[in-house]
Amino acid sequence: MARNCSSESTCRNCRGHNHTLICTSTSQQSFQGNVSHTTGSLSRPRNPSSQRNEEHVSSASAVQPGTTNSSIQEASRNKILLATAVILLVDGSGGEYPVRALLDSGSECSFITERVTQRMGIRRVRVSIAIAGIGQSSTRVLPKIRSTIKSLITDFVTAIELLIFPKVTVDLPSMSVDVTSWSLPTGIQLQVENSLGDTLPTLVNSAFGWIVSGKVSEGAPRSAFVCNVASTADLHNDMKRFWAIEDEPTTAYSPEEALCEKIFSEIVTRDSDGRYVVRLPLKSDLLDNLGDNRRSALHSYRLIENLLGRDPGLATEYRKFMDEYFQLGHMERIDENNASSQAFFLPHHPVIRAESSTTKVRVVFDASCKSATGRSLNDVMLVGPTVQQDLRSIIIRSRLHPIMLIADITKMYRQIRLHPGDTHLQRIFWRSTPDEPIGVYELKTVTYATRVISQLATDEKCHYLLAAEVACKDFYVDDLFTGTKTVNEAIELRKQMEAMFNSAGMKLRKWASNVPASLQDVPEENRAIKDLVDFDKDHTELASGKTVNMDYVCSKQSGYNPALNSKFYHERLLHAAVQLLTNTIRLRFWILVGRSLARQIVQTCIVCFRAKPKLVEQFMAELPSARVTASRPFSIVGIDFWGPIYLKPRHRRDSPPKAYVAVFICFATKAVH
Questions:
Q1: Angle CA(43)–CA(48)–CA(49) in degrees, nearest 5?
Q2: 363/324 Cα distance (integer angstroms)
Q3: Which helix (H) or strand (E) element contains residue 70?
Q4: Would you say 379 and 286 are in contact if contact means Cβ atoms under 8 Å apart?
Q5: Domain boundaries, the chain
Q6: Measured between alpha carbons, how far is 29 from 11 in angstroms, rounded to an integer?
Q7: What is the mean pLDDT of the chain?
Q8: Percent of the chain at pLDDT above 70?
Q9: For 243-264, what is the mean pLDDT?
């Protein structure tokens, strides 16, 4: 059959017309012996003299970052015996389990099979260690165990950590070894290492007794070899990456961000009042394709007028905002006949913020409105880098200080003037009343900018060092979140901040602090909370106009009393319930176990107790005699009858039949039928 085979493939060993797997030739390619041991591996020897029911573990030192490997290459008639020993594993309860361990003096980690771990029933510990193999194959070890190993021959005992694997390596050795020809020494003092012969392995005296390892010239020729690699370098790299995440991010701008930053730094100026004057960071190659959006902007304005006509209250607030915009010089009316022909109109619409303490209605100018060419003003402007930190970092850092300060810049964007050469790109339509003709206005200030704060800190650092450092890191848009250690430092910081921002035409308001002494010279209109209750005074004027004696709330001798404070709010809110009382107090104070305290105040209030009397519950009537007299089951019953219900028909085309249910309940046993 081999002679008649038409295949052109030949055996890799003998070059004959047979398959390589069934080749019986002995002229196989020889391999150079090369053995290196730096890691433990898990194996099951096939030596007939070894115990068949024993599992294997590798024994080594503790796990350290690095890469370790163990490889074996065999010649055609030579094989390598790895050093193994039968040892005892001890679990937490003192039970001992005999296992065969593959010993490797160069290993940095030790392994154990899943089967041995389950048989021991020892508690596991979760870890995350990457084990890499040949060809960059990688797996991750999750559990490990802690155990104690003991020698069967010597007194050696030590604790060890073992990484758990389903199976560490192939069964070793791969063939039987005849030891009858070995001349094993008996009754003599051997050195630490003794060779049994040129073609025989070596005896090594270890902590587990005498072990055998080395080259053996015996057995059928073979071309297989084993290479084991265990790497924990990834764990070291993972830890480096973990700590790298905690480092401060480096400033690396994109080309567009770098160009925007360069343009701002070169053209930003300050006028005679100290206000900043900036230009729009335009993309010169796209500006010519901006297009005309006058028609769409005019259509949007008429829609807004219709909206304001249906809501007089909103129209009043909207008109008030725009009139203020004009009176403050933030926009001016122009004559289109004498103005630049190239212009871009910004549609505007209201944004309602009912919770705001200052401006309930704000006007937003939409720079993302598309023109006839499909581009908007935002599309032709460069995007600058992020110059402020994230809000979470700012708030967490501010809460580390014993004294916290919060403030807001009044109309910050409208304090930054726009260069006259760019105002034609910020035109709007507006008229105060529908009877007037629609006018064209140009905005003289920017609509959004945060880069000026850091620029102000840079320019005024020589005059206000403390305020400049805080302005660079504790501002989120136009809100300040910072703090100090002492009251004097808080006062000094607040004064420097006010002076520095006043030099640029900006004003700080909505000051708030957890320590009122730091705001002692701040005007009432510049505070975030204007109606604070002063518990050091004998009397406090309430919103209703009545004067209530506050001696029972707090006195200078007794100090602050949360219970009395809660009682004061409970009565001020006309005997509010627990939920309302708790929420109202938390608007200004955060009292520990505040809900429990509010519940106690409400429950002990005499007025609330009288206003909510407990209703008298009606006693249940006596049961009929049939319910309490012994009788035969179902001799006296109660019947419940209900229906109809529809049953599933036997055939699909049939209509569902009706059914009724009768329930019989025994009075004596409560059984149901």
A1: 95
A2: 12
A3: strand 67-73
A4: yes
A5: 1-27, 34-176+191-236, 276-476, 539-611, 625-666
A6: 12
A7: 77
A8: 74
A9: 75
The per-residue pLDDT for range 651-662, each reduced to its tens digit, is 888 888 899 999
Indicate the SS3 state at residue 390: coil
pLDDT in tens, 168-207: 766 666 667 776 666 666 654 343 455 556 667 777 778 8
DSSP state of 581: H
Q: What is the CA radius of gyration of the chain?
A: 44
Q: Which residues pair with 484 in a beta bridge?
A: 403
Cα separation of 395 and 417, whole Å?
30
Residue 401 structure tokens:
């200080």
Q: Could you give the CA distance from residue 70 to residue 58 in angstroms, rounded to a whole number?
A: 12
Nearest to 173 by CA among 112, 109, 111, 100: 100
Show the CA angle centred on residue 640, arms to residues 639 and 643, nearest 5°.
Answer: 140
Is 48:177 a contact under the CB 8 Å cutoff? Answer: no
pLDDT, one tens digit per residue, over 593-624 is 888 989 999 999 999 888 887 777 788 888 88
Q: What is the pLDDT of residue 250?
A: 58
- Please write the tens of the pLDDT for every residue from 467-522: 999 999 999 988 999 999 999 999 999 999 999 999 999 999 999 998 888 888 88
Length of the chain: 673
What would the two tokens of residue 97 be?
């389990």
pLDDT tens-digit map of 123-157: 888 887 777 666 666 677 678 888 888 888 888 88
How far apart, in whole angstroms, are the C-alpha atoms of residue 321 and residue 341?
Answer: 28
The strand ranges marked E within 218-257 are: 226-231
Q: Give the residue among 501, 494, 511, 394 at the shortest CA–CA distance from 455.
A: 501
Judge if the upstream peptide bond of residue 644 is cis by omega within 30 degrees of 0: yes
pTM for this model (two decimals)? 0.48
* Residue for token pair 């309940």: 665
Which tokens sit at 531?
Answer: 């109606």
| C-alpha to C-alpha distance for 589 and 583, rounded to whole angstroms | 10
Element (H, E) at 470: helix 465-473
Query: In the beta sheet, which residues pair with residue 157?
Result: 150
Distance (Å) of CA 535 to CA 137, 222, 556, 557, 561:
71, 95, 8, 11, 10
| Whole-angstrom distance, CA of residue 648 vs CA of residue 62 | 70
CB 531 within 8 A of CB 503: no
Residue type (1 letter), 278: V
Of residues 455, 425, 429, the one with CA closest to residue 270: 455
